[in-house]
Prior knowledge:
This protein is mainly alpha-helical. The chain has a domain at 12-27 and 46-62. It is built from four helices and no strands. The chain has helices at 7-10, 16-27, 31-36, 49-61. Helix 2 (16-27) runs antiparallel to helix 4 (49-61). The protein is extended.
Amino acid sequence: MFVPVIIDEQLIPGTIEYAISHIVDKRLDLSPFDALYHNEKHGAAAYPPSIMLKIIFYAYSLGMLSIQPTD
């Protein structure tokens, strides 16, 4: 049995996750990203640019970088 998850109902006001979601959804102009966003007929469905941007901002808020330093 699958239980639908509504992300907006899971975000708690006052948290960094809520702030990031609010900023990306309400304050940023994502039209340059949306112009390039489309699903091809083949392969897996593309993720919406807003979701990908939220993931990147959240990772940065945790101090995660795409390139890890080597010793």
